[in-house]
Amino acid sequence: QTTGYTVEAITYAPPRAFSGLANPVSVNIDDEWSPLINLPFDFCFYGNKYTQCVIGSNGILSFNAALAGTSSGYSFNSNIPVSGNTVLRENSIFGVFHDIDPGVSGNVGWELITLPTGCRALVASWSNVPMFSDNAASLEYTGMMVLYENSNIIEVYVKQKKLDNAGAGTWNGGNAIIGIQNATGTLASVAPGRNGLDPNWTATNEAWR
């Protein structure tokens, strides 16, 4: 069982292309949780075993099955861990979690891939999705999460993450998160400098395990 986590920067080498995944979700819809996704393997997250998950349009994956098909929300002003927040959900993976808008363009989806080892992985991707407030093509977000069978390793790949400019400031304060938190919102592991209230940041070809 995986009960604790360390975070490390890794080589940027996504195991799958970001676009064209077999199972699109949030098609032309903003701020929405996907239908329930059945995993073909057990995935252990903070000591609990899961066989289902949901994907949010703003760069989040959760093992809370009750969220399926509901509104995901977008506005937050907090770090993780946090409990009882209706946007920064417990029992979730954030990567990159920020306000983007697949209702304008881009693709969100998932696919099961088989690795050279014979083990499998769930890939969830947000490809060329515009930032919400300033949705110019130059400010599109592309990123990926990978959940590995057996090892329970989680990886996040960020091809491009920009800041969403909104007039004189930044939309939603520029807040964005790469990290994970447990089912009670009491434990989290976050990439350095990548919590919700850390200074605003951009990234190109960045990866974390």
Polypeptide structure, described:
The chain has 209 residues and is mainly beta. The protein is 0% helix and 40% strand. It has strands at 23-25, 37-45, 48-56, 60-62, 92-97, 107-114, 120-130, 140-148, 154-161, 165-166, 169-170, 177-181, 188-190, 203-208. The strands form 3 sheets. Strands 1-6-7-8-9-14 form a 6-stranded antiparallel sheet, with no helix packed on it. A hairpin with a 2-residue loop joins strand 2 and strand 3. It is globular, with a radius of gyration of 15 Å. The model has no long low-confidence stretch (mean pLDDT 95).
Give a brief rundown of this model.
With 209 residues, this protein is mainly β. The protein has no helices and 14 strands. It is 0% helix and 40% strand.
| Helix/strand class | mainly beta
Q: What is the mean pLDDT?
A: 95
Cα-based radius of gyration, to the nearest Å: 15 Å
Number of distinct beta strands: 14
Question: Going across the major beta sheet, what is the strand order?
Answer: 1-6-7-8-9-14
Task: Give the N-terminus to C-terminus distance in angstroms.
Answer: 17 Å
**β content, as a range?**
35-45%
- Specify the number of helices: 0
Spell out the helices and strands N to C.
EEEEEEEEEEEEEE
**Helix amount:** under 10%
- From the spread of the alpha carbons, the general shape counts as globular
Biggest sheet character = 6 strands, antiparallel
Uncertain stretches of 5 or more adjacent residues: none
